[in-house]
Amino acid sequence: MHAMSDTQRRTRLGRRHLLAPSVRAASAVSVADAVVALHATDAATVFVSTCARLAEAGVDTVERALYEDVSLVRLLSMRNTLFTVSSGLAPYVNASNARAVAAKERRTFLTHLHDDGNGLGENWLIETEKATLAALTARGSATGSELSAAVPALRTKITIFPGKKQETVQGVATRVLRVLAAEGLIRRDRPRGSWTSSQFRWTAAESWPARELAEAQAEVALRYLRSYGPATEADLKWWTGWGLGQVRTALAATAAEEVQLDSGAMGWVSPGDTEPEPALEPWAALLPALDPSAMGWADRGFHLPAEHRAALFDRAGNIGPTVWWNGEIVGGWAQRADGEPVWRLLSDVGRDATTAIEAEASRLSEWVGETRITPRFRTPLERELTA
Fold it and tell me: Phi and psi at residue 18, in whole multiples of 5°?
């Protein structure tokens, strides 16, 4: 059995995730495919993650892919989380994860409608969805507020969890749009405000080519191993949100090979991917909260010292902005109110690393310009740096 050292894993991460300067990409689609999926819960993450990996960083490049070419699309998929993937991979992510998420979203919403006790149910939802799609088609693109003005049913309010401690009154517009988006009938268009905003307009979406569940899961697993391998069963299970049986079936379908990790665990790589890769030039990176390179494994021990976790994660397990040196997380960063990037090193990495990090901070400032980035999930170190 081949062995795969932590050093080799960090080299793979730098090359395959396009983080070293010599391997940066020319397009946003190349970046998305290199990491399989970009976290999109926080709108800014898609842009900062992509630009960190582009040879020529720029907001326009990402916006063009999202809203003009539609070569990047957002899907509620793995772990019921919003991700951005390439349009070529989207049918597989849709079949492997998003369809199940959409079905759950619809069931949950119908349960809330039933529990409200006002006679709203599946027929009401179907008619409301038809009216919403008709209004959106007529306008081409619209915000949730604009659609609510056009469709009276969207202004309905229901009581969630009636009679329980968490009882609350909620408007249905957001839930209806969430279900339609999860089912791929509408997609997020340009937001109101800047590229950091999550107040999206909506537009009609084209349907994806059909893919069978097993085929789709095998394809997603293979893409994951090519980008993140070696990875354990637990890593793939966590990243996809699949059951263990589905993970093992998908690994078998890819003909994945086992390797021995420094931790003593068995990892998996794609077929034939067992040979060591040559070392990269020294590299530094400033990556955003929820970046895929930080969130791609359940066990991050090979690139994240355990003593750094408390400063870099929130209580829900979301990682904040991170500073990297040669494939290892060595600190965190933030953006002050005046726009200046500021960071703190948690590892002693030497003068060469500090110089490279300063250069990356300058590159970040150049393309971000006057925009201010505040992560949705605040972490202890990020809060300290912005205080």
Answer: 60, 40
Give the type of residue at 266. Answer: M
Pair 308, 346: CB distance under 8 Å: yes
Exposed/middle/buried for residue 295 (C-beta within 10 Å: 0-12, 13-18, 19+):
buried
Looking only at the bridges linking them, the beta strands covering 257-261 and 2-4 are parallel
Angle, alpha carbons 311-313-318 (nearest 5°)? 165
Task: Look up residue 308 and give its DSSP letter.
Answer: G
Question: What is residue 25's three-state secondary structure?
Answer: strand
Distance CA 310, CA 303 (A): 15
Check pLDDT > 90 for residue 352: yes
Q: What are the structure tokens assigned to 128, written together? A: 């409301």
pLDDT, tens digit (0-9, with 9 covering 90-100), for 129-145: 999 999 999 999 999 99
Contacts 24+ apart (CB under 8 A), 369-373: 370/339, 371/194, 371/195, 371/196, 371/339, 372/196, 372/335, 372/337, 372/339, 373/44, 373/48, 373/196, 373/288, 373/335
Give the mean pLDDT of the chain.
96
pLDDT, one tens digit per residue, over 70-118 is: 999 999 999 999 999 999 999 999 999 999 999 999 999 999 999 988 8
Q: Which tokens go with 379? A: 């972490």
User: 199 to each of 43, 174, 190, 372, how far by Cα in Å?
Assistant: 9, 11, 9, 16
For residue 170, give the 3-state DSSP assignment. strand
